[in-house]
Amino acid sequence: MAPPDLDALVAEAVRACEEAGAGERPDRIGRLAAAAGVAERLRALADDLVDDHVEQCRLHGRSWAEIGTALGVSRQAVEQRYRAAGGRCEPEEFAEEICTAVAHMKEAAVRHRNNVIGTEHVLCGLLAENNSAVRLLSSLDVPADSLRRRVQSSLTVGASQAAKRFAWTPRTRKVLTTAQELAAEDGRPVSCEHLLLGLAALGRGAAAAALAEASAGPSALARARSRRPGEGWADRV
Predict the structure, then answer these.
(1) What's the domain count of the chain?
(2) Which domain covers residue 106, as residue numbers?
(3) What's the gap between Cα 175 and its chain centre?
(4) Is residue 77 assigned to a domain?
(5) What is the CATH number of the domain that holds 127?
(6) Buried b (16+ CB within 10 A) or exposed e, 62-81
(7) pLDDT tens, position by position, for the chain (237 residues)?
């Protein structure tokens, strides 16, 4: 596939500027700002492209040294960049139901000989038992069992035995960050519901695709939450 053409990108920035209502007279600063926005989206897309392949390499048992060689950096550098940092989250930041869900995530990883927790593992873990995520999906008439079977079919068997300690992939770290932000807005510990919302908001990967196919995308989940104003937090977790 050929890389994006510069002229096409320039034209895209001009269109973005015009759609923003810059008027008939060329707005050079406006076009510069639009071009910066296009460039930022391209950088983010490029990062996602590499993140996705790093995640796939780890899911299939490739070492950090091999990945570092492919990226032209040291093993230490690539591991620091892509391995989830430890000790960032305190236990009190999470609802009790999270512990059970994480255990199921790890179980799915061990069963498929994966040494990282991807978004597929996260969704499988969230759907394993009754919790706030399952109840939110139920309010949309989305059965957890069938959705779990669907996402389990996307899990692949790795080339080596799973490690004793699991790292969250770049995508799942983004999901966790989103979940923490949502929980902070709610003034509550991070729950399974927050992780589910984070998966849907990510918009990429097998888990987000499975949720979208089940009509449980970000907008649908947000509407389902808004319909429960009288429900107490204790009843949901």
Answers:
(1) 1
(2) 87-237
(3) 4
(4) no
(5) 1.10.1780.10
(6) bebeebbeeeeeeeeebbeb
(7) 667 777 787 787 777 777 766 555 567 788 888 888 888 878 877 887 787 788 778 766 788 899 999 999 998 888 877 765 444 455 568 899 999 999 999 899 888 888 788 899 999 999 999 999 999 999 999 999 999 999 988 888 776 655 556 778 888 888 999 999 999 999 999 999 999 999 999 988 889 999 999 999 999 999 999 886 544 333 433
